[in-house]
Design a protein that fits this description.
Distance between the termini: 20 Å
Number of strands: 11
CATH superfamily: Indigoidine synthase domain
Shape: globular
CATH class: Alpha Beta
Number of helices: 13
CATH architecture: 3-Layer(aba) Sandwich
Radius of gyration: 18 Å
Bound molecules: pseudouridine-5'-monophosphate, manganese (II) ion
Length: 308
């Protein structure tokens, strides 16, 4: 598809033409998910992880109205430092591009751009979900609706327990979005490697995950996305009591501060980081890098047999 406002990097363009493995990467995590300079260091480390395994990274963002699929180091640095960069989800994209704005793309917006560019595999830290108390606030991340309508596989470490995991699972079930567990029977919850919630299907290898992608996207022509949950490595997981306490305090502070709308997730991430004395950030970096490696392996398996 030719999209006049989209720029693919030369590296991504070549990989697309040759049918090589590509991993899409989001940029709200850079602009709003981590503090400087950890955000830029992590973004570069994640790209290096993908390259070291022989796949091509495609970090996605909107820069001065151009939809970038694959970015330079300077462009990533700009997203990481510039405080005027907005958080861009599906509803924000058209106005942002038309008005030549700059934004970090959420999981939802990154899925849209990846799909437009022809990229099927995407790595992030955690996806958005149904917030606690959503019965009153209606706060449900647009990431879930995007998973219902855009055929891209998202490798993540589950959803943070700042969210309501049970409601998130119900929502994904209703929308027909499968949750695959990579070498796990239950959902991880970002900082925790296990919960009580069962995944829909366990896959033992990256090759098996790629088989499910091929069946869903290429054989059945399904329009939904696929969530692939990859638990945080035990060495980096945080203890339940420690992280639950920080999350409870962060939620209390958020209620007192009256934060709502798109500011909720960035606010909670920042509060939890401060309340854990930075421990949540260290865990976050580790799991994002791990997800990038897994996504690269899945993308390589998925690309097998299609390379020119
Ligand atoms: N969860 C994280 N870190 C993040 C995000 C989610 O652990 O940085 C970001 C992602 O970009 C995700 C977005 O798509 O927050 C969800 O925001 P909202 O809840 O407003 O939909
Ligand atoms: Mn929200």
């Amino acid at each position: 598809m030719v999209i006049s406002c989209m720029d693919r990097s030369a590296e991504v363009q070549t990989a697309l033409e040759r049918g090589r493995a590509i991993v899409a990467l989001e940029s709200t995590i850079i602009s709003h998910g981590m503090p400087y300079p950890t955000n830029v260091e992590t973004a570069m480390a994640v790209e290096a992880e993908v390259r070291s395994l022989g796949a091509t990274p495609a970090t996605i963002a909107v820069l001065d109205g151009r939809l970038k699929v694959g970015m330079t180091t300077d462009e990533i640095e700009r997203l990481a430092c510039d405080k005027t960069v907005v958080k861009a989800s599906r509803r924000d994209l058209a106005a942002l591009i038309a008005r030549r704005g700059t934004g970090g793309t959420t999981v939802a917006a990154t899925m849209i751009c990846a799909h437009m560019a022809g990229v099927r595999v995407f790595a992030t830290g955690g996806i958005g979900g149904v917030h606690r108390n959503a019965q009153q606030t209606f706060d449900i991340s647009a990431d879930l609706e995007e998973l219902a309508r855009t055929p891209v596989a998202v490798v993540c470490a589950g959803v943070k327990s700042v969210l309501d995991l049970v409601l998130t699972q119900e929502y994904l079930e209703t929308k027909g979005v499968p949750v695959l567990g990579l070498r796990t029977d239950d959902w991880p919850a970002f900082f925790k490697s296990h919960t009580e919630l069962p995944v829909d299907a366990r896959v033992e290898t990256e090759g098996e995950a790629a088989d499910v992608l091929r069946t869903a996207f290429d054989d059945l022509g399904f329009a939904q996305g696929i969530v692939i949950m990859n638990p945080i490595e035990e060495a980096f997981a945080l203890s339940d009591e420690f992280i639950d306490r920080a999350i409870a305090d962060a939620l209390e502070q958020m209620a007192a501060a009256g934060v709502r709308g798109k500011a909720v997730t960035p606010y909670l991430l920042e509060r939890v980081e401060e309340l854990t004395g930075g421990a949540s950030l260290t865990a976050n970096v580790a799991l994002v890098r791990h997800n990038a490696r897994i996504a690269a392996r899945i993308a390589l398996e998925y690309a097998k047999g299609r390379m020119l």
